[in-house]
Amino acid sequence: MDIPISNEVVVAFGRFFHGGSGPSHSELTQVFQSSGCFSLDPYDEVQRTPNKQTRILKVGNALLQSKERKKASEFASKLLDALRIYGAFGHRVEKECVDALCAAFRNLRWELNEEGRLAFIGGIDLETGGRQALDEQLRRLQQNLEDPAVLLGVAKDLIEAIGKFVLEEMARLPQGKLSFRGVLALSFEQLRLRPQDTDTDAPGGKQLREIRQHANAIAGSINELRNLQGTGHGRTLPTGVSAEEARYVIRQATLLAELMLSTHDRQMGRA
Asked: How far apart are the first and last CA of the chain?
């Protein structure tokens, strides 16, 4: 999968080279050569200009304008390699540089770990990833709550993908496009997780119905909060929603995801 870049990512990369810090000019040249961006580099070896930060910004902005995704991906990948070798994700660079780059990639739904390695945390491709992709996305969401504004969308996508997975495996996925609420309603029906499916006369039945009502409400809240964020990068939490409250909703979403998957496994004889 291609690594995306944005203006925020390019600027964050440039911060590692401010004031002459970071890998050398020759190492930068190797990065540009190996990523196919050498022709975009304005560096003059005789004059030794421009400085390293400007080189990064010039090449990065040229890639953004050209919309060459493969080259942009290689640019990001090779730069991260050079920064890891330099020790940028250890003690040699101020934490602010690393934090800025992490935040920039999170806005593109990529997670940069403490070792400087990237992992995609965006949408889930069921056709190529299947159940393994769902489990991996759930694990990432459980372990990373640092940016709830971005992860609201990740949680919503996960719940929707699980719903489609359930319907597909049970041969109940309709043709055509389904809304989030449509996917949720049909998958909950197949999983028998609807409040109306509860036998309230059985011991604990009334409490179980309330739990199922809560599960439905959490899913709906995730979808509505995500819609309030609008589109585009750099999303923020809706006005009035604190980071703590958003994290609470995301944690509830991971529990709902576990409930849906484990219930489906039991129904399919895998539990």
From this structure: 32
Strands 110-112 and 118-120: antiparallel
pLDDT per residue as tens digits for the range 1-31 = 688 899 999 999 999 999 999 999 999 999 9
Residues 136 and 262 both lie in one domain: yes
Q: Output the CA angle 187-268-222, nearest 5 degrees.
A: 30
- Closest C-alpha among 83, 157, 87 to residue 120: 157
189-209 residue pLDDT tens: 999 999 999 999 999 999 999
Q: Within this chain, do residues 132 and 116 fall inside the same structural domain, yes or no?
A: no
Is 12 in the same domain as 141?
no
CB 63, CB 5: distance < 8 Å: yes
Structure tokens at 99: 């934090």
> Rounded to whole angstroms, how far apart are CA atoms 36 and 145?
36
Instruction: Give me 43's structure tokens.
Output: 């560096």
Angle, helix 69-86 to helix 25-34, in steps of 10 degrees: 150
Give the integer Cα–Cα distance in Å for 63 and 84.
Answer: 22
Q: What is the largest CA-CA distance in the chain?
A: 86
> What gap in Å lies between CA 190 and CA 167, rounded to an integer?
7
Provide the angle, in degrees to the nearest 10, between the axes of the packed helices 7-15 and 52-66: 170
Q: How far apart are CA 203 and CA 43, in angstroms?
A: 76
Choosing from 61, 96, 120, the residue where a domain stops is: 120
Q: Which domain holds residue 77?
A: 7-120
